């Protein structure tokens, strides 16, 4: 079976670990994970008629700059950028991380997950329209309710397979 590596990228506490836990294990916890390390989860999905094993890399308990080290990114067929819709500064962090990821990986597919959709929102549509205009695929997600989570991972998987 083919395997595809996906990195989770984004600022501190935006919900990267929670989105993987929701997608792979169907669970959510309010508890914040403070351990440091790389966690690798796998999920097999069917895209079209093809089975693909998604290998999800999540570096937790580190600051955002650790997440864009070449050793972490290397071999990724795509990445999920995560920002927290309740903290608009995390969108700016996502933009700088995206530039860095593109320098290392080239133009591989990515999706921006604007997470915590279940909470009061702080990101304006105007901020997003510029990004959309430059071709960004932006999804609203909640690791808590599950909104948009599966769709985001699977859209990325589809685009990665189209590119390979
Ligand atoms: P990471 O540092 O980006 O991996 O962030 P975590 O996944 O550890 O999440 C940080 C905190 O935000 C934790 O307390 C989570 O329970 C919480 N959280 C993550 N996603 C959501 C969400 O969609 N909704 C709500 N209400 N809380 C969330």
TrEMBL record:
<dbReference type="InterPro" id="IPR027417">
    <property type="entry name" value="P-loop_NTPase"/>
</dbReference>
<dbReference type="GO" id="GO:0003924">
    <property type="term" value="F:GTPase activity"/>
</dbReference>
<protein>
    <submittedName>
        <fullName>GTP-binding protein</fullName>
    </submittedName>
</protein>
<dbReference type="GO" id="GO:0005525">
    <property type="term" value="F:GTP binding"/>
</dbReference>
<dbReference type="InterPro" id="IPR001806">
    <property type="entry name" value="Small_GTPase"/>
</dbReference>
<dbReference type="Pfam" id="PF00071">
    <property type="entry name" value="Ras"/>
</dbReference>
<dbReference type="InterPro" id="IPR005225">
    <property type="entry name" value="Small_GTP-bd"/>
</dbReference>
<keyword id="KW-0547">Nucleotide-binding</keyword>
């Amino acid at each position: 079976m083919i395997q595809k590596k996906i990195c989770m990228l984004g600022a501190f506490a935006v919900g990267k670990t929670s989105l993987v836990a929701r997608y792979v294990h169907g669970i959510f916890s309010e508890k914040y994970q403070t351990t440091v390390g790389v966690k690798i989860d796998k999920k097999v999905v069917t895209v079209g008629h093809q089975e693909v094993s998604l290998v999800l890399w999540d570096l937790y308990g580190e600051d955002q700059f650790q997440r864009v080290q070449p050793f972490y990114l290397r071999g990724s067929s795509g990445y999920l950028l995560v920002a927290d819709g309740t903290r608009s500064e995390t969108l700016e962090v996502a933009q700088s991380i995206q530039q860095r990821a593109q320098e290392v990986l080239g133009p591989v597919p990515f999706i921006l997950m604007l997470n915590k959709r279940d909470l009061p929102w702080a990101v304006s549509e105007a901020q997003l329209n510029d990004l959309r205009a430059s071709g960004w695929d932006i999804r609203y997600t909640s690791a808590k309710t599950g909104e948009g989570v599966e769709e985001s991972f699977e859209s990325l998987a589809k685009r990665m397979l189209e590119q390979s």
